[in-house]
């Protein structure tokens, strides 16, 4: 028996965590997701594994090599352009000369794959499971003998007819790939399976008990860690259990005056200072430093994160090499990309996303996600007014908010003259400022294109407030 791990996913819904890494390389319990899939295949006796790659393939090849470190034989098949799920597997058809299992490299599961293999020997099998919200998955109806009678990819609520969904785990014969051409973009769930149903080909599904999580978004990423730490999914937790559901990896030091409450995982070579509180469902990657009095709850920190004294993290995900300095706070659903710096007494509001390499200045409160630009400032106005790069730091949305704030300060009926030069970006920002000021009730005169002295003269001559 051979297996194919589909590991070409970009993971756009997991950004900023996937900025700079493919989705299968995102860590769960301090190891790439794909590591857990390889270990699951080993448990069920599958060691000859092909891996389909498309997005950042070298990251995966460099990490896993030929698989000898894990006791498996890995072969890689790279797509030059995206071929879809079935197309990517057909790209490895030279490797697939016998019955094979297909599984995603970016899902977390402990399903009993051996039962699916046994079922396939009798009738053929797609592996199914049941979920509370089936909107993001292919919904399936099966007859009592397991034959699939209806299949619908990602239905709306009005189309939901079952809570049984396609897990993306399939046991197939090589002949299943003969229904479409090489290099043709083709999906299993959207193209191949509906085609097989239309042609009355035998297509069976088996509902397996156990845990399965697609980890399609940031909320599911946090939930997957909580489920793993609480034992809902049967995967190996690294380190030694030193207390009730508290695992500590090699080289970590926890000050006796610190508090660690499980379930929690402290990564290798971490240091937790006196008075620090590590509360339930917290995971620290390797090399993290948590200073005195810091408090972390329901959060996932990657490698080499610095958490300053009295900092507070609640339900957050923090990328590698991030600095969270003294007194800073990061709250529910917030995500900080790699190599960012959150300076002292900053506050990241819930659900804020910071892309990698961002600097949040001391005392700033971040209420909106920061994608472009290098920094987030506490004060908008500097010595020379508002400065920044057009369409990166100064966007139309930003200009509208500035205009609205300005209009609110001068009050309804206040008189404002707005001018600018003739550059396209300047005209765009000027129009956005005008819209914002008008939304607050200000009376706005558009001075058109001109130089700054002309605008100053117009304000005095036309008797404008500003």
Structure description:
It is a single chain. The protein is built from 9 helices and 38 strands. With 466 residues, it is of the alpha/beta class. β9 (138-142) and β10 form a beta hairpin. α7 crosses α8. It is globular. The model is unreliable at 127-135 and 155-163 (pLDDT under 50).
Computed CA radius of gyration, to the nearest angstrom = 27 Å
> What is the overall shape?
globular
Number of helices: 9
Could you state the oligomeric state of the chains shown? single chain
Keywords:
21% helix; 8-stranded parallel beta sheet; 466 residues; 9 helices
Summarize this structure briefly.
The protein has 466 residues and is α/β, with parallel strands linked by helices. It contains 9 helices and 38 strands.
């Amino acid at each position: 028996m051979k297996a194919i791990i589909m590991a070409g996913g970009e993971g756009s819904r997991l950004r900023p965590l996937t900025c700079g890494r493919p989705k299968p390389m995102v860590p769960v319990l301090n190891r790439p997701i794909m590591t857990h899939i390889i270990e699951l295949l080993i448990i069920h006796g599958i060691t000859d594994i092909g891996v389909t790659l498309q997005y950042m393939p070298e990251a995966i090849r460099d990490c896993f090599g030929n698989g000898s470190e894990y006791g498996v034989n890995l072969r890689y098949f790279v797509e030059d352009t995206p071929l879809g799920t079935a197309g990517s597997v057909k790209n490895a058809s030279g490797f697939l000369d016998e019955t094979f299992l297909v599984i995603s490299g970016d899902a977390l599961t402990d399903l009993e794959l051996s039962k699916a293999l046994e079922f396939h020997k009798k009738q053929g099998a797609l592996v199914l499971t049941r979920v509370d919200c089936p909107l993001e998955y292919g919904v399936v109806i099966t007859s009592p003998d397991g034959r699939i009678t209806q299949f619908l990819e990602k239905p709306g609520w009005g189309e939901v007819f079952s809570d049984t969904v396609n897990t993306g785990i399939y046991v197939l014969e090589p002949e299943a790939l003969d229904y479409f051409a090489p290099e043709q973009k083709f999906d299993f769930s959207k193209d191949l399976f509906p085609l097989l149903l239309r042609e009355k080909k035998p297509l069976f599904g088996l509902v397996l008990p156990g845990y399965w999580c697609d980890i399609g978004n940031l909320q599911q990423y946090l939930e997957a860690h909580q489920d793993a730490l609480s034992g809902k999914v049967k995967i190996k937790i690294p380190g030694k259990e030193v207390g009730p559901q508290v695992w500590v990896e090699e080289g970590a030091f926890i000050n006796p005056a610190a508090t660690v409450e499980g379930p929690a995982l402290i990564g290798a070579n971490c240091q937790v200072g006196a008075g620090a509180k590590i509360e339930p469902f917290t995971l620290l990657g390797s090399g993290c430093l948590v200073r005195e009095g810091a408090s972390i709850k329901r959060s996932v920190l990657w490698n080499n994160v610095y958490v300053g004294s009295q900092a507070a993290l609640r339900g957050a995900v923090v990328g590698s090499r991030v600095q969270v300095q003294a007194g800073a706070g990061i709250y529910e659903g917030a995500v900080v990309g790699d190599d960012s710096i959150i300076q002292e007494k900053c506050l990241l509001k819930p659900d804020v996303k910071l892309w990698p390499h961002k600097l949040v200045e001391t005392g700033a409160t971040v209420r909106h996600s920061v994608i472009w630009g290098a920094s987030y400032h506490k004060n908008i106005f500097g010595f020379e007014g508002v400065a920044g790069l057009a369409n990166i730091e100064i966007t139309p949305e930003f200009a509208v908010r500035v205009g609205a704030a300005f209009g609110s300060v001068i009050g309804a009926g206040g008189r404002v003259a707005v001018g600018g030069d003739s550059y396209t970006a300047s005209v765009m920002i000027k129009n956005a400022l005008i819209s914002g000021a008008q939304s607050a009730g200000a009376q706005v005169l558009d001075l058109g294109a001109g130089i700054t002295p002309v605008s100053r003269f117009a304000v005095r001559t036309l008797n404008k407030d500003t």
